[in-house]
Amino acid sequence: MQSANTLVKKIVRSSILSFAAQHGMKKDFFPLGRTLSLSLCMKQDNSCSPSEKIDLDGWKKVMKSGLQEVSETVSEQKELSTLAGARDLLEMWRLAGRCVPENITEEQLKAFTECPSKSAQRKYLKFLYLKELYKKNDKKKMIEKRARRAEEQEQDPKLENTKKNSFIYFRANSMDKAYNWRVAQSMIFGQSLVFDMSYEKDMSIREVTNTVRQIVLSESFNRRSADPFHIHFCNLKEDSLYQKEFIKHYREAWSRLLVTATDQCYTEMFPKDKLIYLTADSPKVMKTFDHDKIYIIGSMVDKSIKTGVSLARAKRLGLETAALPLEKYLLWSSGAKNLTLDQMMHILLTLKDTGDWKKALEFVPKRKYISFVNKPVHELKKNLNLINELKLGKRQEQVQRQFAKSYSKNLPQK
């Protein structure tokens, strides 16, 4: 009887171990083999106690846990193998002379593998390559600058002492305190300006980086102005790409920045009748700067120029919209009428201080327009009539009609 039992135990153990070896499970089946062998003994020997019966629920749990562990390990191995293959491919491309960065992080490698097409992968690699190249050039320039300073100090040691004048440090420190004091006062008494940070899904990683750079420039311009805005970063989610880029730029100063950063929407913080969304797609043109209103700027930079995104968001929220009067004061040449965020900040600060559109629109890039509209309408018409009489003759009336259609909207009324 004992020899038969031992033979049955060996057969059961060998079959279980072979099944475990096929599915990658070893440790969890040893107690299972014991319970099965005990169940076979119970069939032959009815004198066994009822506590030694097989536990089917426990057996199911063991099976499921083993399969879950196998699936997790397989997925991790697949991810590691894809990343390793992508890294080898990038190294091969770099040796072949393509624009591939020398050092690439795990996050950047995952972003590369998640690109939807080959062209997107090439563009992303070129972006990383140029970024690394700019860092190398900046580092090289810093080393050369330090070497030049060391040579100048060796030639004339008095020059370094004059540069390290205590008055210069005192002035810089006092100016920073004055700027911070102005911004602190604007947080209590100043006019609010909102940056809408809800466009992360509509941009790529590179576009989000450019957006944050422009916002950092806007914040520095606002901090140095005579009457700064109280800046609000609304819809700024925690651990978002926006926040990560802000922390990269500001580092430890991010927690001390004199702005209001919140994940709330601006409609929850301010009354809707005071909000005006500034967008180039708005049919309504802004005539004057209102000091009682709260202007909203969409924090979005897109090279493809997705028209209507900010206007659609403002309409969904039931907000008033406005566009800058670019066609009224400028003879527009070509290109879209979208401006960068730092240019918008310059224009709004100038309008707030002076109310002069001509001074404010000087911050529009000169490549986008021909000139300002300085002369009244009747003088322009006289000049056009003279040109038509000298050159065009009989086509004078036709050209006048074309001129009236194309430039009547661009010229201010008398």
From TrEMBL:
| Principal cellular location given in the protein's record | mitochondrion
Q: Where in the cell is it found?
A: Mitochondrion
* Keywords assigned by UniProt, alphabetized: Coiled coil, Methyltransferase, Mitochondrion, S-adenosyl-L-methionine, Transferase, Transit peptide, tRNA processing
What this protein catalyses is: adenosine(9) in tRNA + S-adenosyl-L-methionine = N(1)-methyladenosine(9) in tRNA + S-adenosyl-L-homocysteine + H(+); an adenosine in mRNA + S-adenosyl-L-methionine = an N(1)-methyladenosine in mRNA + S-adenosyl-L-homocysteine + H(+); guanosine(9) in tRNA + S-adenosyl-L-methionine = N(1)-methylguanosine(9) in tRNA + S-adenosyl-L-homocysteine + H(+)
GO CC term, one of those recorded: mitochondrion
Residues covered by the SAM-dependent MTase TRM10-type domain: 179-371
**What GO molecular function terms would the record report?**
tRNA (adenine(9)-N1)-methyltransferase activity; tRNA (guanosine(9)-N1)-methyltransferase activity; tRNA binding
Name the top EC class: transferase
What Enzyme Commission number(s) apply to this enzyme?
2.1.1.218, 2.1.1.221
- CDD domains per record: Trm10_MRRP1 (cd18102)
Kindly list the biological process annotations in GO that this record carries: methylation; mitochondrial tRNA 5'-end processing; positive regulation of mitochondrial translation
Cite the InterPro entries for this sequence.
Answer: MT_TRM10-typ, MT_TRM10-typ_sf, Trm10_C_MTase_dom, tRNA_m1G_MeTrfase_euk
For this entry, the protein name equals tRNA methyltransferase 10 homolog C
Task: Name the species this protein comes from.
Answer: Eubucco bourcierii (red-headed barbet)
Encoding gene (name):
Trmt10c
